[in-house]
TrEMBL record:
It comes from Amycolatopsis japonica. Residues 258-277 have a biased composition (Low complexity). The chain crosses the membrane at residues 20-38. Keywords: ATP-binding, Hydrolase, Membrane, Nucleotide-binding, Transmembrane, Transmembrane helix, Transport. Pfam families: ABC_tran (PF00005), Peptidase_S15 (PF02129), PepX_C (PF08530). The keyword Nucleotide-binding applies. This is ABC transporter ATP-binding protein. Residues 236-293 are annotated as: Disordered.
Amino acid sequence: MKYGHSVPRIPLPRTRGAKLIALAAVVVVLAAAAVVWTNSDPAPSAVKTQDATLDLPETPGSSEVVKIDTTTYLPERTPAPAVLLAHGFGGDKNSVATEARELADKGFVVLTWSARGFGRSTGKIALNDPDREVADARKLIDTLAARPEVLSENGDPKVAVSGASYGGALSLLLAGTDKRVDAIAPVITYNDLAQGLFPNAAAPAAPNATTPAAGAFTADGVFKKSWAGIFFSAGSGAAQSGSPANDAPEAGDETSESGAAQGTGAAGAAAQSLPLGGPNGQRPPSGPADPCGRFTAEVCQAYTELATTGKASQKTVDLLRRVSPASVTDKITVPTLLVQGESDTLFGLDQSDATARQISAAGGKVRTIWYTGGHDGGKPGQKLRAQIADFLKFSLTGQGSDPGTGFSYDIQGTLRANGAPSVRTVSAPAYPGATGDATERRQFALAGPAQPVVRPAGGNPAAVSGIPGLNGAVAGSSRLSGLFSLDPPGQAAQFATPPLDAQTIAAGSSTVRLQVSADPSAAAPQKEAVLFAKLYDVNSEGVRTLPANAVAPFRVSGLPADGSPVEVTVTLPGIVRPLEAGHTLRLVVGTTDQAFATPVEPAVFRIGLADGGRLAVPVVHGNSVGAGAPTAQLLGIAGTLLAGIAITVIAAFRRRRAHDVDESLAKTPLVIEGLRKAYAGGFVAVKDLSFRVEPGQVLGLLGPNGAGKTTTLRMLMGLITPTAGTIRVFGHLIAPGAPVLSRIGSFVEGSGFLPHLSGKENLELYWASTGRPADKAHFAEALEIAGLGDAVNRRVRTYSQGMRQRLAIAQAMLGLPELMVLDEPTNGLDPPQIHQMREVLQRYAATGRTVVVSSHLLAEVEQTCTHVVVMHRGMLVASGEVGELAASSGEATFRVDKPAEAAEALRKVGGVSGVDVDGELVHADLDGLARAEAVAVLVRAGVAVEQAGPRRRLEDAFLQLVGEDSKGE
């Protein structure tokens, strides 16, 4: 034995579980060290900011002034080249604070400002009028020229202009009117605002397009009412004429149109730009409301005309032309980087295409980038913003690599990493048709007879192609995307190609020639047709996807009364989409679309193919590259892999939780307590959700799209892990791979049937993959309940969508599970098919088992379910029996002998609203008034009341719970 200082002994783990935990902890620490090392924050920024308010003339030569709120970002070293950074519509200078600081960190002097009518700046919004907003920007260049921190040559400052959407258009207009601008980088912006807001995709003659996304840009277009309404709302309130505009948002508040470009979505943008002190901090008006809000009278009049008539007068066209970059692009010769989004139903790829052609023709040097975002899909990421900065650096100083006049576009795949889809970039040396050879267009044969299409009175119901500003939220899911692509029966003609022999990557705008004729048998044949064309990608299972939710509206005038057809070439929206072998392309031409202004007169048209039904799809060849992986990123990936190993080890240890059983709940099909699911970036899909499902119930999980229903079901099925809370099925705690999952039948993630096998063979193959005995499948019972009949022996490729859905339900019923979970089982079905599906679910519930069905269709839940759970924005807002919930809306129904007199008497009672007559019934929202008092009112009015009771409508209760705005979610 040796004597001296003793060394403390570190106790080592002895049990297997303790060793696993210790190993996982070591791996996690190593992974964290790698990630911290590779992603540690840079040194604190040396950028300084200076705020100033400039008094500028209301118009050139005017004595009236507007106050423009500015911030200048100064880099560590000066003098330096300068960048004017403009914000998007509805934002202000704070909306671009992040981008401004990034540019300043890269060595630029950056000047941001709030445009007229936004933030703290005064004045009226004139949509980038040359004598107003553009003149303001010229004065801002004057201020830069006077600053010693700005690099200049003989008093001429080195200055570039950039901005997104509204700000991007400003950069183009300024470059066309001020020779001091040395380079521009407009992002997701427009070329012609008239075509952006009321496009017409039809041209009488075949196009001679050489660029990949050339639009038809024909006059007399179709009003894009949804987007226009969003932006008019964003600028219509908050400030009174002559008073300061809204308070500036807090730093980093990304709202409005610039927020759409930055990932918040333009629909949310409008919500954040509402008047009366909304989240953006606006002041409420101090006087009478102004219907024109912060807009000039000319802009207000133009919008009013478009919104009420659906057409633009020549005066409105001239106004929009005056404020459009197309009015000056023939004068732009400075280096230009055009960045356009592939997910953009506001300003599509055709807008960037036109600008590229026009500036190239003027002698300008143009580089074009299409990326996966846009007004529907999110802002440029950090890598793309770095490319913009590099372009500006070279253009202003000559430092770095020459960006040239190349063209690149992103192809979004289905593989997801860290929650985001994989993206690869195709690079070409030049933009086809502008600085390079003409675009190749591959010909695909469409087939289908000429078909009659009906425009219903009032244009209602209307087809749905997407929801402006929210389309990107569902773009990654073909099932969710299908919810936003609905074509009412009888309103659309459909034509399809044979299955593709090989993959084709569409990159731009496809074209097709059509024949359109009026119905000669009508009492007054229509002389004009407003139609909407969409090109679906349909996979081998019949699931269709509308790429980028893109639709091409077009107007065909001069239709002969005798029914003779008029031929037009329709240019479909620009998309980037890999069209896989075995898929088909389906052209749908309809009479309505909820995002556009549709004529209200009922009409019948006939749509047919012309020119052999050839669909011309643009293809742009180039070198395909993935994201770069420098050393730091590789180390980061290594850290991620180590973290993955740790997670695997921990997951193995946590599998013990699968045996966590609460015996008191052994007969209860489902109990959810405190459930929460949060994603990276702070988005919370489900918040503190708790409810219980008892045996024999048919529970409807009801809520608008985006309420968190599918996320909840995916957690129930063990497909994703909750952030907090518990899910128990028959007392067993749900975890990935939990044995109790075998007691659940589900249809949540899609069926995935093999099209060359029969329905029965698909079911047998699925059951065999579970490893359970064949005699436990109960094929006969499941098929009888699903009601497929002899069709079960046919190949699935011959099935209609309704038959596929019923087969999917039969698959979920295999083994006759005690709990069946279905996500939107009636999705894509027509009314008769929905009725059949309802009977399928009721027959299954009649066997004594439990069904949980998610839906956003109020009528289906009301007719199918016994109980309902209502979700909104991830939270539980109500639960209970359907009948009880339907009776809770506060509305009442009275059966009376004098309905008209009863309605009149009720309308005179203060607070009572929504009075309407339905035969002998009178319905009214009593707003807290007791029904007995309402009866007394009727009796005093001489009305005999035979019956009084609650009006049992689930729709009313639903809207009362989640709000009218949820109808469009």
